[in-house]
Specification:
By secondary structure, the protein is α/β, with parallel strands linked by helices. It contains 13 helices and 23 strands. The chain folds into three domains: 185 residues, FAD/NAD(P)-binding domain (3-Layer(bba) Sandwich), CATH 3.50.50; 146 residues, 3-Layer(bba) Sandwich (FAD/NAD(P)-binding domain); 64 residues, no CATH class. α1 packs parallel to α8.
């Protein structure tokens, strides 16, 4: 029986598990969260307000499929090493509380692996964004969905992309007054991205309309071509400066105005988590201004036995992740693409890939955003590295710049600041930093003591 390991328990990973089980494989699912669901299905069992859990019935069906198929599931499982060979794929994992002692090491040897590691929030820095009360849009959404907690009494949501709409809605449902949603892209860019070929949006138009209706019911203003360009306050957030933006996201002089608030949620899209894919040697596709794992029609990467699905192959949302995951899991287990059971997922994948291209055209980051930074703006929060420090060393190779400034060398290892650092270096005329912030020999934090116990690791082959 083919053994398929799946790295990630969000929509793509859960759909991959269901697909692999349907094709007759034995499945091992590994997820670093406390519970399955990933970034999309963040929840706590005690919360009963299902308005905060979009597509909850789909999640329950996928979770039941795992139980019915007797899949081996590990949560709080951090894969810190991934290797591919002629014998399959070898994952080294520690299981337990991320900051706790006594985590259990396990080795997973599988015939094939589906990488469904997802993406994390991308929040572009602004002056004052290190003040207490500033979160990423995803963090604000997580607190609302999982714990029923609002990040503030008066919240401003700013960034780019349709994700801002459900974030604002969730905040309103848990009691925050959202005083504005500010979309950086201007109306002409949004129209170019979303209006052509409206029939391609049949499954999404109703969803967008629902969120816009929710904003109207809660009297939440939605402004395009505008952004938070400064956060105000001494000890914590006291307000923000909003400015109009031009087509390249440069602030327009004379449009600045202050808005009182005690919380800010910033979200400018998502960054794929490529560490495991790079460790395994997967080729990266740099088309469309991004960096994603290159896959074929079966979601197969350039490395034998390694498949990828979800946000690491392109930012397209949960529906795209579900479709790609179903294809990847089925194919990884040896299933054929012409199997009738893949008809639905393949059709959904075609629709959602068109949606992903629209998303990038309408909301993709424009280079002018760096104009709202000043020299003292902290870009790397872990190491308190300012824009000035990065610009002063922008002319040296990427590795030397990072060693000199320590940008990206803190606890998050560049996950938060990497894209911003690269944009600032590029604007200053420095060499491209390319994949420097994604390539990590150790994929997740692991203690020296844990490494010493590897000989006693449980093995799952």
């Amino acid at each position: 029986m083919t053994h398929v390991a799946i790295l990630g328990g969000g929509p793509a990973g859960l759909a991959a598990a269901q697909g692999a089980l349907a094709a007759g494989a034995r499945v091992s699912l590994l997820d670093e969260g406390d519970r399955l669901g990933g970034q999309f299905w963040r929840h706590h069992e005690r919360l009963t307000d299902r308005r905060l859990q979009h597509g909850w019935h789909r999640f329950e069906r996928l979770r039941r499929a795992l139980a019915d198929g007797d899949a081996e599931v590990h949560v709080r499982a951090s894969a810190w090493s991934a290797e591919a060979s002629a014998d399959g794929v070898h994952l080294r994992v520690v299981v337990g509380e991320a900051d706790g002692d006594g985590r259990t090491p396990i080795d997973v040897h599988a015939d094939a692996v589906v990488l469904a590691t997802g993406a994390h929030d991308l929040a572009l820095p602004v002056p004052g964004w290190t003040l207490p009360g500033v979160t990423t849009a995803g963090a604000a959404q997580a607190l609302a969905k999982r714990d029923g907690v609002a990040v503030g009494r008066r919240t401003v949501v700013s960034g780019a992309g349709p994700f801002l709409l459900p974030v604002a809605h969730s905040l309103a449902l848990v009691g925050s007054r959202v005083v504005g949603v500010h979309e950086a892209s201007r109306t002409p860019a949004l129209a170019r991205g979303w209006l052509p070929r409206p029939w391609e949006l049949a499954g999404k138009a109703g969803e967008f309309a629902g969120y816009l209706g929710a904003l109207a019911r809660h009297r939440i203003p939605y402004r395009t071509g505008s952004a938070v360009v400064r956060v105000l306050g001494e000890e914590r957030v006291e307000g923000v400066v909003i400015a109009g933006l031009d087509a390249e996201w440069r602030p327009i002089p004379g449009t600045e105005h202050e808005v009182a608030c005690d919380a800010v949620a910033l979200g400018h899209g998502f960054t794929p988590r490529l560490e495991a894919a790079l460790a395994l040697g997967c080729a990266i596709d740099r088309d469309h201004g991004g960096r994603f794992v290159a896959v074929d029609d079966a979601q197969r990467t350039s490395v034998a036995g390694v498949f990828a699905a979800g946000e690491i192959t392109g930012i397209g949302g949960a529906d795209a992740a579900l479709a790609e995951g179903a294809v990847a899991g089925f194919a990884a287990a040896g299933g054929a693409l012409d199997d009738p059971r893949l008809g639905g997922p393949l059709a959904a994948r075609r629709r959602m890939r068109a949606f992903a291209l629209r998303l990038d055209r309408a909301h993709g980051i424009r280079p002018g955003w760096t104009a709202w930074l000043d020299d003292a703006t902290i870009v790397c929060r872990c190491e308190a590295v300012t824009r000035r420090a990065i610009v002063e060393r922008a002319d040296v190779p990427s590795r030397a710049m990072r060693l000199a400034t320590r940008a990206g060398l803190g606890p998050c290892q560049g996950r938060t600041c990497g894209r911003a650092v690269e944009a600032i270096v590029a604007e200053a005329g420095g060499p491209a930093a390319s994949a420097g912030f994604d390539r990590r020999p150790v994929l997740a934090p692991v203690r020296i003591g844990e490494l010493a116990t590897l000989a006693d690791a449980e093995r799952y082959s």
